[in-house]
Amino acid sequence: LYSQYSKMELKDILKKNRSLERVETDSLIWVYTQMTIKTIYSNDTRKDIIDITNPEVTKSANYVCALIEKKHLIHINDTTFQLTTKGKFSIIFNLCNSNSEPERFFDQEVVADCSGVAVSKNQILTAGHCLNESNYANYYLVFDYKIDKNTGHVNKIIHSANVYQPISVTKITGNAYNNDYRLITVSPSLPKNRIAQCRTSG
Q1: Which pLDDT score is estimated for 107?
Q2: CB neighbour class for 49 (10 Å; exposed up to 12, middle 13-18, buried from 19)
Q3: This prediction's pTM
Q4: Could you read off the pLDDT of 123-173 as tens digits, one per residue?
């Protein structure tokens, strides 16, 4: 299906009560399926990074950042941000709670809207529907966003060295449904240990 609008762009249209007559039917169908059909079949084998012992996997986690709205990060001082979450995963996503087996991550707190991976010293790759040209400046890109193994809760004290400012985003060209990616230019530059090793050909 062809999508003229990303999920976030359509949400903005709905919030502003603008007419949906300008939105193509295929766009609405695409967004609806992306927002509602999120089923995990068979056993749920997802794990938090704190539960993984494979060193290659834990190393890869260093390259990944969370896209967090600036309103959820309070700048305390030159070295520290205070994180505020949106609420529990179970409430925001209306998860089921069976007495015998609640859904995974039921009580975890939520704040990130999307994730990205560093591919160069100034660029982060993310999904195209996560940000657009009109809202990218409302976000920070935050590394080391994870559950604290000692407390079982999200670490809410974020070092400023792990917080990056988006400077620009690339435009999506062609069919947005098939080309769902963007490159975000960030500041300051990323250190080498944050940058994933990616193929440049083949």
Answers
A1: 83
A2: middle
A3: 0.74
A4: 999 988 888 888 999 999 999 988 888 887 888 899 999 999 999 998 776
Tokens describing residue 38: 């999120």
Report which of 13, 45, 43 is spatially closest to residue 28, judged by C-alpha positions. Answer: 13
Helices (H), the chain: 7-15, 25-36, 55-60, 89-92
pLDDT at 96 over 90: no
CB neighbours of 190 closer than 8 A, spacing ≥ 6?
118, 120, 121, 122, 164
Q: What is the DSSP code string of 46-87?
A: ---GGG---HHHHHHGGGEEEEEEGGGEEE-SSSEEEE---E
With DSSP H G I counted as helix, E B as strand and the rest as coil, what are the percentages for the chain, rounded to 5? 25, 25, 50
